[in-house]
Write a structure and sequence with these properties.
single chain, 2 domains, alpha+beta, elongated, 256 residues
Length: 256
């Protein structure tokens, strides 16, 4: 039998190396066992626990769905929910009818009395019966309606040179019936008193003037809303007067 008689230093290093090897081996085995245990736990969590939870959730959903389908008047409940969800849209589509009277007041002229007003806010069709005691006032009123314009002003924009739309007609397709010498000579007509004539005015107004976010100017400026400003000819203007570019025949009505 052959024995190696190692030198003391070499033998000590050899023993130390053997201990280090064993230590590394033990640590590696422990790490491997821990990793394997973690892998097994992860597999169980994913494939067993989560699958079981998912199946339970599916069963619960199916059960609750069945209960809802079998509930009494479920169709009415769903319909009401849909209606509630659509309320903001429906509200925004409702015309602001309160703007009409301020517009009529802003475009009125002296010497006339408006008896009736009919307005279709969906189409913008306007019909009025008007009373006057002379043709001049009636013609002035017609001209005032014919030349009336509006602008939409956004008070949130501080730059006054860029916070309003271009002027546009308030009334289009303007027509009158009964505003002539023959009607005046007839005296009393319908609800008109003797010596007065009643004539009808029909026109189309922009539906934009009745949008929910638009408020008539003389109702005051309100935060979050745009303002409709009505501009009408100065009193006693005629077609020839307004056709002269050097003459400003318009005045702004309402609060500024």
């Amino acid at each position: 039998m052959i024995q190696l008689n190692l030198l003391p230093d070499v033998k000590a290093q050899f023993i130390k190396a053997r201990r280090t090897y064993r230590l590394i081996l033990i640590v590696s085995i422990i790490v491997s066992l821990v990793s394997l245990t973690g892998l097994v736990i992860y597999y169980i969590s994913v494939d067993v626990v989560q699958r079981h939870t998912l199946n339970n959730n599916i069963a619960l959903i199916q059960s609750e769905t069945s209960k809802i389908k079998n509930s009494k008047d479920i169709d009415q409940v769903i319909t009401i929910q849909k209606l509630l969800e659509s309320l903001p849209t429906l509200y925004s589509s409702i015309p602001r009818a309160s703007n009409l009277i301020p517009y009529i007041v802003d475009t009125a002229s002296p010497g006339i009395t408006i008896n009736t007003i009919n307005m279709n806010y969906q189409t913008g069709l306007l019909s009025m019966t008007v009373q006057t005691d002379n043709l001049t006032d009636g013609n002035i009123y017609y001209n005032q309606l014919n030349y009336a314009t509006y602008t939409i002003v956004d008070p949130a924009i501080k730059d006054t040179s860029n916070n309003s739309t271009a002027p546009a007609p308030v009334f289009t397709n303007l027509k009158t019936t009964g505003l002539d010498d023959t009607s005046f000579a007839a005296g009393s007509s319908g609800s008109c008193s003797t010596g007065y004539i009643c004539f009808t005015v029909s026109a189309t107004m922009p539906t934009a003037l009745f949008a929910r976010n638009i408020i008539a100017n003389n109702l005051g400026v309100q935060k979050g809303y745009k303002t409709a400003v009505i501009n009408v000819p100065n009193q006693n203007v005629t077609h020839s007067t307004c056709d002269q570019p050097s003459i400003d025949c318009f005045v702004s009505k309402g609060k500024q």
